[in-house]
Design brief:
9 helices; 5 strands; 9% strand; 43% helix; globular; five-stranded parallel sheet; 249 residues; alpha/beta; Rossmann fold
Length: 249
């Protein structure tokens, strides 16, 4: 199936989901590309499929643009690399596969997991950082509630565990959004992270919430850590790297 046909299939499936009665929670219905970004979504999927078996990674990073733009293979044309220093310090010579895709929601990750991106892999560590984009509604997908998003994350965790039961999973609380504490996205983040912490406890997973590390005492999010209020800078990625280094010991 070529990219155009796959895109149309994804659009049709998304449309069916939005108007359907049974699948009320779009966060748990696997779909391919929904939003445009600075790279080719389908090409990245092909790049992942070509790289994953050769790499046989010790660590797999699963997420959206926050993961995608950190560093690591595959290096898809158009992708940004923002945190190479912290990535290199954290992982060194470890084999790491970056399954972060800009603009992905939980439903996109579920589609990717259903279409081979994790098949055959047995990494020691899997880091999951997904759900922030579910807080945003567009013409392609509705906004999800924290409860719906948590359900999507839980399905991702279950899928990963089914494919590689021995892998140790680190579930990240999603990072703060918006420069000011009054930003409405902050409520979504707080409520979702409470649910993710509960899921991690029930499944006996490592849970890391870096909200306190990113925010100032007054609740503001420094530009030095997230230049646009969403995506970490090199300094912001260093905070994440430090937390993962401690967790992976």
């Amino acid at each position: 199936m070529n990219k155009l046909m796959r895109g149309m299939a994804g659009w049709l499936l998304t449309g069916m989901t939005l108007v359907g009665v049974v699948a009320a929670n779009t966060a748990i219905v696997p779909v391919p590309k929904l939003e445009g970004d600075c790279y080719d979504w389908y090409q990245r999927h092909e790049d992942v499929m070509a790289a994953k078996d050769k790499l046989q990674p010790e660590v797999v990073m699963i997420g959206d643009s926050i993961t995608h733009f950190w560093d690591g293979p595959p290096f898809t044309t158009g992708s940004r690399v923002v945190g190479p220093k912290s990535w290199a310090k954290l992982f060194g010579d470890r084999k790491v596969l970056n399954l972060g895709y800009g603009w992905d929601r939980t439903q996109n990750v579920l589609w990717r997991l259903d279409h081979g991106e994790f098949d055959g892999l047995k990494p020691k560590w899997v880091v999951v950082n997904i759900g922030t984009n579910n807080s945003s509604g567009t013409s392609h997908a509705p906004e999800n509630t924290p409860e719906e998003t948590a359900e999507g994350v839980q399905k991702i965790l279950e899928t990963v565990t089914a494919k590689s039961p021995e892998s140790k999973i680190i579930l990240m609380g999603i990072f703060p959004r918006g420069a000011e504490p009054s930003d409405p996205k902050r409520t979504f983040v707080k409520e979702l992270n409470l649910r993710l912490a509960k899921i991690a406890a029930e499944k006996k997973l490592t849970f890391i919430d870096l909200s306190a590390k990113f925010l100032q005492p007054d609740g503001k999010l420094p530009v030095s850590l997230m230049s646009d209020g969403v995506h970490p800078t090199e300094e912001g990625y260093a905070i994440w790297a430090e937390a993962l280094e401690k967790a992976m010991k």
